[in-house]
Write a structure and sequence with these properties.
Number of domains: 1
Strand order of the largest sheet: 1-2-4-5-3
Low-confidence stretches: 65-71
Order of helices and strands: HHEEEEE
Strand content: 15-25%
Largest sheet: 5 strands, mixed
Radius of gyration: 25 Å
Length: 164
């Protein structure tokens, strides 16, 4: 008696293919998540630059420009105050949230005896982890993806390397 086998794949062959597809899927998901993180960082940094350009343009118009430092100025205005100072003359609307959907943090410095803010400003995003690291920062890029993104005086003070 002769046995006839139908052509097909063995169990081992199917398991190997499933394992390969699983590894490729995992690599694709990791690359997607990394790209998504970088996209959020870049969007946040672009919004911060736009706010800063508006702030510095305003400073040129009102002739107030002070150099900013690396620690946060004393006054922390609400979004509505910043928006009322800059919009619509210098920017259509000030972006409210960073790439992760959390509100930006603004800090302004007022000149002595003035009710108008000077150009000393700091714009912060809490980054991926959503928690601010403090008020004093070590300037420069970092490999930490959870780092705060801080912009002041026309440059990024603290930022992730992948965001540039």
């Amino acid at each position: 008696m002769r046995r006839t086998w139908s052509s097909g794949f063995t169990l081992i062959e199917i398991l190997v293919v499933v394992a390969i597809v699983g590894v490729l899927s995992m690599l694709a998901i990791v690359n997607y998540q990394t790209a998504l993180l970088r996209t959020k960082q870049k969007r946040t940094m672009a919004d911060m630059r736009a706010i800063a350009v508006a702030w510095e343009t305003r400073a040129g118009d009102v002739r107030q420009y002070n150099a900013a430092g690396f620690t946060l100025p004393a006054v922390t205005p609400a979004y509505a105050e910043v928006n009322s100072i800059l919009a619509p003359s210098y920017i259509r609307t000030v972006p409210l949230n960073d790439g992760w959907g959390r509100p930006f943090s603004f800090s302004l410095e007022f000149a002595v005896g003035s009710t108008s803010p000077s150009n000393e400003y700091v714009i912060r995003s809490a980054g991926r982890d959503g928690a601010f690291d403090g008020t004093t920062y070590t300037p420069g890029p970092t490999d930490d993806p959870n780092v705060d993104i801080v912009y002041s005086a026309g440059t990024f003070i603290v930022f992730p390397k992948s965001g540039q």
